[in-house]
Amino acid sequence: MTTNNSALPGPNDIARDVLPNGITILTRSNFNSPSVVIGGFFGAGSLFDPDAKLGLADFVASALMRGTKTRTFDTIYNELESAGASLGFSSGVHKSGFNGRSLAEDLPLLLNLLAGSLITPTFPRAEMEKLRTQLLTGLAIRAQDTSDMASMVFDEILFKDHPYSRAEDGHPETVKKITQGDLVKFHREHFSPHGMVIAIVGAVKAEEAVRQVKRALGGWQVTGQKEALALPPLKPMKKTVRRHHQIAGKSQSDLVIGMAGPMRKDPDFFPASLGNNILGQFGLMGRIGDVVREKAGLAYYAGSSLSAGMGPGSWEVNAGVNPSNVNKAAELIVSELKRFVEDGVTADELADSQTNYIGRLPLSLESNGGVVGALLNIERHNLGLDYYLRYADLVRHVTRENVLGAARRFIDTEKLAIAVAGA
Amino acid sequence: MKNQPTETTLANGLKVFLKEIHTAPIISSWLWYRVGSRDEVQGKTGISHWVEHMQFKGTPQFPANLLDKAISHEGGAWNAMTYLDWTAYFETMPADKIDLGLRLEADRMLNSQFDPSEVASERTVIISEREGGENEPLFMLGEAVQQTAFRVHPYHHEVIGDMADLRTMTRDDLYNHYRQFYVPNNAVMAIAGDFETGKMLARIRELFESIPSGKEPARVARPELPQNGEVRLSVEGPGSTSYVQACYHFPAASHPDFFPLSVLDSLLAGPSNLNMFSGGISNKTSRLYRALVDKELAVSVHGGAQATIDPFLYGITMTIHPKRKPEEALAVLDKEIKRAQEEKVSKEEITRAIKQARALFAYGSENITNQACWMGYAEMFAKYDWFQTYLEKLAKVTAKDVQRVANEYFKPQSRVVGTYIPLSGRVK
């Protein structure tokens, strides 16, 4: 098949600049629509949350736009929404991040609001209390969500005694304990331009985008930041652990079955990723979808996913099923995992998934938001500006033996984490 | 590059829109059928959505196990959706592979098999889809409000259908529905992306023009009568969070009042985003957010209109603050509606709503899939011109128009108010 590389981002059309204060800027112009998308990340993830105040990084991210030194909550959003623009922050385990979009003419406004929120948030007390109630309501809704709760219980089993076992948005009792002082301290200790990355894609020239970022964020300097903590190793599971989280009155249960997976920089990442595509994504959710949904008619959705980041990843199968069919679906999934580990994948299956990966790449990059995600992926995992040009070769390079090797390394059907949430 | 699409109708009645966009080696092809829950009667609710599922179950040329892999193999994205007025299928693919998508759609316009065993396994899949919906308080509340707002018109029921019908509909019911509505003269094809119009049109003629046209599908003609008096209802269920949904009867998308109402929607609840493939914006400076969330009666508020053939609903959904009662939030909502009815909005507020719409349009045009989508989507409830002149029509809206439509459509006696009462304890 032919791949038109001219549509893929590469060294010829990605500009990469690093400001003296440590901010890396990645830009790619696209004048096909008069809009721009920005995205980025910086330190300050939930790894820094004390157990008793779990949800702190998330609270801080949610609170950044509630007031800054020069603007109130209402002023910030009035400027933003009057321009039809959007901006938001979110926190992850290792990093916090932001994304926003506007018409190109409003990029300076967007960057000013970003800078104010990052550098001089004031965490006004009245706004914090409003926000706390919203966060607690979110947690009350989460407690009723079978999918969220099954994922949470799955992480608790798989990542037992590891920081990844913790729910990033915390629990009602921990969110209630977070004070305004905690937010101020967290911001002081963990927010810094050093290591921050910002990607800008849209109707703006690279040099102009860099000039605007410099004007908004170039003067940001901080000292005395806390270093990120080293992750402890993940303890391997010794046997299958299954837990059922009861949520009364629900007509559908969510089921998660899985195990640890590769880190993003692991050489087994591509073999595991292509293997996972065959297992639970390709077509209408791969082999799992075929068995659980198409043949047995047990679920509206059934598939698998690989989550590979900076630390140990997870490899999980998800399905939403009637409570009376949970065991039947679980048996079918485990037997598919067994087949996957014992027999591996066929040459046709691998070839299908390889052409699927290569062919769909331009689709994932057709919007500015898609390209922003791709640029941040390059920078976060140090993949090189030519990564998307090399991507097809990386995919083609994977053999059936590689897939089988990755499957056998990560999947042991006697040592699974199984979580169910529902009635 | 051609910015204006080419519009033509084949001899069998299939309407075709083609728009060249040469920014990426991608083509997005959409096939829209004028069939949705609006075309369903009791006993067969959910049939349009189920037929959509069956369209993935194979033809003699593309058997089910081949069909679901063929598009993925070529790196394409494809899906389908069923709504009140329409059912749509799309494939977005590398430009040199789109022919597969076109052949597949031409084939399944006529030749889907509806194998009885596939119907049986899909029945439980769809029941499972509905059970997933029933897990959500807002699905249960929305369904109750909708069925109360429409006693006569088929907008009465949810697109997914009633469980009773999902359990009893037969293979022949489904097949007959398919044959009745999946005819070229009831369809619109919309393709955007990296192609030459002449060549693409020739290929479409080759694949589709020989499909015989069918009888113009009969429509359920049961217009809803005006509602004379507010209706309140409640739904009880698990959880500890209360929700209130207030729905007002709204005009069809083709009605001139839809545009001043869109401006009013922007002011009240933040602009509704009609794009299917790009996100909207926040609404934290909308009138309702300021009155309800800033003042801690609710923790969130959202409003939205739908573009439909027949008059449908404008819904305002509030997640109630844990220390407040639903009726307190409702009283504040009423005050804000009254304000829009009594006071003229400022010129600045209208200008702001138009700028927001302009930005949302720009975001939508980043993406080829979304651009192809709009050509067919607009045809389902109006004409493509509706989309192309949308911003111009908004620009003509005056403060007087906004005040008039606020009075005409936001009458308490023509609304349905639903409250979700959580069973796990609340403020008494």
What does this structure look like?
The complex is a heterodimer of chains A (423) and B (428). Chain A is an alpha+beta fold. Chain A folds into two domains: 10-217, Cytochrome Bc1 Complex, Chain A, domain 1 (2-Layer Sandwich); 241-422, 2-Layer Sandwich (Cytochrome Bc1 Complex, Chain A, domain 1), CATH 3.30.830.10. In chain A, 44% of the residues lie in helices and 19% in strands. Chain A has helices at 56-63, 73-82, 107-119, 125-142, 146-158, 172-177, 180-190, 206-217, 269-280, 282-295, 326-343, 347-364, 368-380, 387-396, 400-410, and strands at 15-18, 24-29, 35-44, 86-91, 95-103, 197-202, 241-246, 253-261, 299-307, 313-321, 417-422. In chain A, the strands form two sheets. In chain A, strands 1-2-6-3-5-4 form a six-stranded mixed β-sheet, with helices on both faces. In chain A, helix 9 (269-280) crosses helix 10 and helix 10 packs across helix 11. Chain A is globular, with a radius of gyration of 23 Å. Chain B has 428 residues and is α+β, with helices and mostly antiparallel strands. Chain B has two domains: 6-208, Metalloenzyme, LuxS/M16 peptidase-like (Cytochrome Bc1 Complex, Chain A, domain 1); 231-422, Metalloenzyme, LuxS/M16 peptidase-like (Cytochrome Bc1 Complex, Chain A, domain 1), CATH 3.30.830.10. In chain B, 42% of the residues lie in helices and 18% in strands. Chain B is built from 16 helices and eleven strands. In chain B, strands 1-2-6-3-5-4 form a six-stranded mixed β-sheet, with helices on both faces. In chain B, helix 10 (287-293) runs antiparallel to helix 11. The longest helix of chain B has 19 residues, at 116-134. The radius of gyration of chain B is 23 Å and the shape is globular. The model of chain B has no long low-confidence stretch (mean pLDDT 93). The chains are: A alpha+beta (423), B alpha+beta (428). At the A-B interface, helix 2, strand 5, helix 4, helix 10 and strand 9 of A face helix 2, strand 5, helix 4 and helix 12 of B.
